[in-house]
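User: Can you predict the 3D structure for this chain?
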Amino acid sequence: MIDTVAPVTDPERLAALRQLILLDTPAEGSFDRLATLATRMLRVPVALVTLVDGDRQFFKSCVGLPEPWATARQTPLSHSFCQHVVAARAPLVVEDARVHPLLRDNLAVPDLGVVAYLGIPLVTADGHVLGSFCAIDDRPRCWTDEDIAILTELTASVMTEIELRAANAQLAELDRLREEFVASISHELRTPLTAASAALQLVRISAADRLRDDERALLDNGQRSAERLGRLIDDLLTLNQLTAGMLHLTREPLDLRDVVHGAVAMVEPLLREKDQMLVTTLPEPLPAMGDDRRLEQIVVNLLANAHRHTPPRTSIVVAGALAGDKLRLVVRDNGPGIPAGECEAIFR
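Assistant: Here is the predicted structure, written as structure tokens:
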């Protein structure tokens, strides 16, 4: 006789089962479709995706199961054939449970009307048997090799669905951890950065008349570095929000000239480092609807990129104009440009 208790209550198997977060979850179409397909292909009234817990079996799908079991979606192990699939780690083929030496006293026979049973183990990549995908008939049946092959293929599809759910859950958890990490590290960086920037400003103001030119240059360089790090933190937070689908944009009336002027003020210290000239051509109001903070962030990044890739003592041009109901803003520099084959990938 098969010892069912030890394999069913194995702590590692139960941990693997519970880690999947499938027990006591609502019915799902992906599993129900496979169970329905099993009933049609094998011409049986009942098909179950069964997960065997330590003291019960839970039906992730239960097509054709009579009441009250269909509503409960679980039974105690006293009504379980699937526990024997878990114990044997192999298919269980039963032509008539009423005369089967292992199953004839199982309460599933009188209470659920189980007579013929075909169960295929649900096995994880780590070798844990979660339960069984089974087909049930209410009369004796001689299962064929073709029946077993069909249900085995459908069982593989059930496991694929389970593994996809597990992979998606793992990705969601990794996303959550990444978001928490980025938010935490951004906070940890911004706090000392704000203090350092304030200290630099205080020294510059309080000692303005006593600073030598080289000391003033060092303070300016420190202030520019602090501002640059602040922009990097902003970019990191924006990317994190964008990836998480949590980036909220506001749409308000604005003049794009104000956005450009704000961005220019932020990058002018960088341009002076390489003696670069910034030429702005904004001859008329440039009305638009948008998020001025995010637009300024975009223009700052474009200008910073132009500064980085443009040779010293050359010009960077920012030009804006209205063309009908559209607004065009151009940032032009003398850098090497972007290879033609990579242009489409920039905004993906």
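The longest strand covers residues 129-137. The longest helix spans residues 145-206.
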